[in-house]
């Protein structure tokens, strides 16, 4: 057993984990510091995250990892109050289109400040970075450019690879393991702008309340952590969705159905996407009003949750109605066009 006064090493952490012992928050933070500093080997990283996954990650372990990752990140300087992120974990294995990215743009159209954090695809065909690039958005904004974009348009995108350079030390074990690990959970917990409102889609149905509790520990004021019964890391329109809602420091867990949100239930096959170009076309079609049915409804469900968490709606159903108005009025499409234009101008001027 590791003495609490002895600095933890990758070897001692692995010994604890394979013995089904939990790491303390400080131990977890120290382990992540070792990884982020490039002092751990790929084999050690793979061993620790695999042992964590098999044991089951605790609130303190996830919090410690997230705190260390935040400390090693680049940051966007902006007012954090009322700032929303829609970054999810990915890892569902279902190749849907980019629902959280669409929802972020609609939430911004509704007047909520959005600092969208995301990456290229890890398990699907198109991550948020991939589809935004296909839509014409310049994704490689510096912190200063992202801050200016947020001021001008009310939404910015922060490309995870640029804001978390220390994660390169874990890239080989992550890629070669090919399984979901604690790293999947860390992206949504490490927003570079310090967003205090979040909608997080989670691949693990059993961990929604744990992740919501971690968000509270990290200073997030309002959040919904969602995972559907049919395996989506989104609010589903094909099955009930488990929600762990953080509000006023308390976490409440419940289920919602598409019908409760005033939406039609569709087979999950009707929300599947493709490569970045295909998904970009779906999003343009939703925003232009040409794409209805399942694509529109699943975006309304998730955008409605964003608007609710962002404080612009009194309930989820009200949020869904506002989201529909943002599409039907053309404001969502205008917001996307504004993001495309402004990121292009910023990268041209600053670049």
TrEMBL record:
Q: Does the keyword Transferase apply?
A: yes
One Pfam match, given by its short name, reads Glycos_trans_3N
The catalytic activity, as recorded, is: N-(5-phospho-beta-D-ribosyl)anthranilate + diphosphate = 5-phospho-alpha-D-ribose 1-diphosphate + anthranilate
The metabolic or biological pathway listed in the UniProt record of this protein is: Amino-acid biosynthesis; L-tryptophan biosynthesis; L-tryptophan from chorismate: step 2/5
Entry binding sites for anthranilate 2: 174
Give residues annotated as binding 5-phospho-alpha-D-ribose 1-diphosphate: 88, 91-92, 98-101, 116-124, 128
Q: Which UniProt keywords apply?
A: Amino-acid biosynthesis, Aromatic amino acid biosynthesis, Glycosyltransferase, Magnesium, Metal-binding, Transferase, Tryptophan biosynthesis
> Could you say which residues bind Mg(2+) 1 here?
100, 234
Cofactor comment in the record? Binds 2 magnesium ions per monomer.
GO cellular component: a single term: cytosol
GO BP, sorted A to Z: L-tryptophan biosynthetic process
**Which residue range or ranges hold the Glycosyl transferase family 3 N-terminal domain?**
12-73
Enzyme nomenclature, EC number:
2.4.2.18
User: Which cofactor does the UniProt annotation name?
Assistant: Mg(2+)
InterPro entries hit by this protein: Anthranilate_Pribosyl_Tfrase, Glycosyl_Trfase_fam3, Glycosyl_Trfase_fam3_N_dom, Glycosyl_Trfase_fam3_N_dom_sf, Nuc_phospho_transferase
Record-listed Mg(2+) 2 binding positions = 233-234
Identify the domain of life. Bacteria
Q: The Glycosyl transferase family domain covers which part of the protein?
A: 82-332
List positions binding anthranilate 1. Answer: 88, 119
KW Transferase (keyword) present: yes
Family assignment from sequence similarity:
In the C-terminal section; belongs to the anthranilate phosphoribosyltransferase family. Belongs to the anthranilate phosphoribosyltransferase family.
Quote the function comment for this protein: Catalyzes the transfer of the phosphoribosyl group of 5-phosphorylribose-1-pyrophosphate (PRPP) to anthranilate to yield N-(5'-phosphoribosyl)-anthranilate (PRA).
Q: Whom does it interact with, and what assembly results?
A: Homodimer.
Cited PANTHER family: ANTHRANILATE PHOSPHORIBOSYLTRANSFERASE
Q: Please identify the protein, giving its name as recorded.
A: Anthranilate phosphoribosyltransferase
- Organism of derivation: Paenibacillus algorifonticola
Quote the gene name from the UniProt entry: trpD
């Amino acid at each position: 057993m590791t003495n609490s006064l002895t600095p933890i090493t990758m070897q001692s952490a692995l010994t604890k984990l394979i013995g089904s012992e939990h790491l303390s928050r400080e131990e977890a933070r120290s382990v992540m510091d070792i990884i982020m500093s490039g002092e751990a080997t790929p084999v050690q990283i793979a061993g620790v995250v695999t042992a964590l996954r098999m044991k089951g990650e605790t609130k303190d372990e996830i919090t410690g990892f997230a705190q260390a990752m935040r400390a090693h990140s680049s940051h966007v300087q902006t007012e954090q109050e009322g700032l929303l992120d829609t970054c999810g974990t990915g890892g569902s294995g279902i190749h849907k289109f980019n629902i959280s990215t669409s929802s972020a743009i609609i939430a911004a159209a509704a007047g909520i400040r959005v600092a969208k954090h995301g990456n290229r695809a890890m398990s699907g065909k198109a991550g948020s970075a991939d589809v935004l690039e296909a839509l014409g958005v310049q994704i490689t904004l510096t912190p200063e450019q992202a801050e200016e974009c947020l001021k001008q348009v009310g939404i910015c995108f922060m490309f995870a690879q640029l804001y978390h350079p220390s994660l390169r030390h874990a890239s080989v074990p992550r890629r070669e393991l090919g399984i979901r690990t604690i790293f999947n959970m860390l992206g949504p917990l490490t927003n570079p702008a310090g967003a205090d409102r979040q909608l997080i889609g989670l691949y693990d149905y059993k961990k929604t309340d744990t992740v919501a509790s971690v968000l509270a520990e990290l200073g997030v004021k309002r959040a919904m952590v969602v995972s559907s019964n049919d395996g989506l890391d989104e609010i589903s329109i094909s099955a009930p969705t488990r929600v762990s809602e953080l509000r006023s420091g308390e976490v409440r867990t419940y289920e919602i159905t598409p019908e409760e949100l005033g939406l039609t239930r569709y087979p999950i096959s009707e929300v599947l996407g493709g490569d970045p170009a295909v998904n970009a076309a779906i999003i343009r079609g939703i925003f232009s009003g040409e794409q209805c049915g399942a694509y529109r409804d699943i975006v309304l469900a998730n955008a409605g949750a964003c608007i609710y968490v962002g404080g612009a709606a009194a309930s989820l159903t009200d949020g869904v109605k506002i989201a529909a108005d943002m599409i039907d009025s053309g404001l969502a499409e205008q917001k996307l066009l504004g993001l495309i234009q402004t990121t292009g101008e910023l990268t041209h001027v600053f670049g």
